[in-house]
Amino acid sequence: MSHLAAAAELLSRFSIPSLDIALVLGSGWSGASVGLGETIGECELADLPGFAKPVVVGHSGSLRVVRTPGGKIAALFSGRTHFYEGRGTGPVVHGVRTAAAAGAKVMVLTNGCGGLNTDWAPGTPVLISDHINLTGATPLEGATFIDLTEAYSPRLRKIAHEVEPTLAEGVYVQFRGPQYETPAEVRMAKTLGGDLVGMSTALETIAAREAGMEVLGISLVTNLGAGISPTPLEHGEVIAAGKAAEPRLRGLLAGLLERL
Ligand code: 8IG
Description:
CATH topology: Rossmann fold
CATH architecture: 3-Layer(aba) Sandwich
Bound molecules: 8-iodo-guanine
Shape: globular
Number of strands: 9
Strand content: 25-35%
CATH class: Alpha Beta
Order of helices and strands: HEEEEHHEEHEHEHEH
């Protein structure tokens, strides 16, 4: 229950009554959030109860609270805890539960991922329409039957399409990682109905739906899935594709925050 302590600490630290929106910035998304709204305050995530320092290069592990042009209060989380870190699902969804406990009704989850559609060049953002959770794990405990029929809010996807009418949609497949998929696993993901492969988001979406939040998921395709691309995956290309896509991603996030 340390998300209740974290939420209380977050609200008192920034002297705000509650959050409206929370946004998790995944691989390649941090730069896209620069200048979004008027900053109310910032802190290290590790300064709030229950948060651990993220391990991935390019994830800074900080929190910025902003007032959006629409007058809403949004918490921007840079960096996340991944399931592959091996600490279970609790730390993975701690930010989501903290945001919900602080009053956020909308959860925007972004990530960097592999694409299974060759039309999507590295640097293409794709709205998540649904997910396939291949982690074998869940953040839910006991007989907690959560409906996931419209896990990724049709209402929020419509708003995203108002900002960018050409935005593609796809099914996100969460693998445990940390290794990337084999080509056979990439073919399996495609056969199962997947369009995107990654190592986050699905578990967070489950926790957000449990908490009653509306979820918007946006993936940044930073590479083609293994075996689709002629070149092997490197973390450097992930960073580079994210940099090149920054202006488009910033426009997308700014347009969303104006409308949410
Ligand atoms: I960035 O190709 C990024 N994250 N599972 N597969 C998986 N995760 C990823 C990939 C990828 N690219």
